[in-house]
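seq:
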Amino acid sequence: MRRLATIVLLCFSALAGCSATARLYPVQGPLSQQNPAPVYVAKLSGALNSGSFKVILGNGEVGTGRWSVVPRPNKSSDAGNSASPSSGDMAAEWDTVYGQGFYTSRVLGARLHAKAEVTGNQGTVLHVEMYKPGLVGAEAQSAASIKGVARDDKDNIYKVAF
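struct:
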């Protein structure tokens, strides 16, 4: 049990440690039609279970918000609900970016899964989800293994890469 706790702590250190930089690439929606498509840069920082999320959007808009770990369902009481995504989950966005079934097979119920809601100073609202596979060793400490998706209120879907 102690080893498992150590591995989880190491895995989250990459996401939640001091800070991480992410890039948001539009893959669907009006921004993906632009040539070249814009790429937004985000900075994440925080502690083990939550932290801040800041992104520079187009036209000088700055979005800020908080990320936090998604609680895993209780195995005994939520066993029937664990196979179906809740309305707040972004299953369709995960499957759009990473392929059909990705959300159900990898993200749903994952130990290392976080969400953020970011609001821009010009009114844009961005919903972000991030996931990190349960890796061991040096890979566990690398932010590069984190995958993510985002959706804004202007019908854009983004791939989030670290």
